[in-house]
Amino acid sequence: MHDWLQLLRPQQWTKNGFVLAPLLFSGRSVETELLAQAFLTLLAFSVTASGVYAINDVVDAAADRLHPVKRERPVAAGRIDPRAAAIVGGGLVLAGLGVAYTVSLPVGGLIGAYVILTALYSAWLKSIVLLDVFSIGAFFLLRLLAGSAAVDVRSSFWLLLCGGLLSLYLGFAKRRHELGVLGSS
Predict the structure, then answer these.
(1) For 45-72, b where at least 16 C-beta lie within 10 A, e where not — what string?
(2) Contacts of 147 (CB under 8 A, 6+ apart)
(3) Terminus-to-terminus CA distance in the chain, angstroms?
(4) What is the pLDDT of residue 185?
(5) What is the pTM for the complete model shown?
(6) Other beta carbons within 10 Å of 128
């Protein structure tokens, strides 16, 4: 069970808290229906992200085996069968999209865009120095936009600007940390 939790990375779900920011700043956070829509969107992002992590670990297993930290991931370490991880990951992505589309068409579309961007990131964007960090920023902006769509409020320029800058900071900090782990600092 521990290996499956490690594969699905529930500790990463805190990033999805960005989905709740538009509701909190809208002044309507006590409206039960909006709370339900926001939390369903949070659930959809969390389930989808776990599915994406599982699929990504299957795709990156060979490279992860060469990394000092990532080699301990369950697929790379051989503790979870890659086929099982891919099936569970695909099922979670479909389930997350299903939940997203029950919230609204725009929320489903934004989480669909997240899945597509994640696939592009895993296949190509993460290997291009600045595009990798801008992709990380876009992941957070998609969360903000989905949160806005879920509760039918317009994202303010300031919310998107602050969220975008915070996500770029986090992306650059992540890259800096990885360089330190790999001894390239």
Answers:
(1) bbbbbbbbbbbbbbbbbeebeeeeebee
(2) 18, 19, 20, 21, 22, 23, 38, 41
(3) 36
(4) 45
(5) 0.87
(6) 12
* Residue 121's CATH number: 1.10.357.140
**Dihedral angle at the C-alpha atoms of 4, 6, 9, 12, nearest 10 degrees?**
160
Q: Which comes out higher in pLDDT, residue 176 or 160?
A: 160
Q: Which tokens sit at 50?
A: 């776990």
Place of tokens 């299903």: 98
What is the total count of domains within the chain?
A: 1
The boundaries of the domain holding residue 30 are 2-181
Check pLDDT > 70 for residue 18.
Answer: yes
Tokens of 84: 């099982």
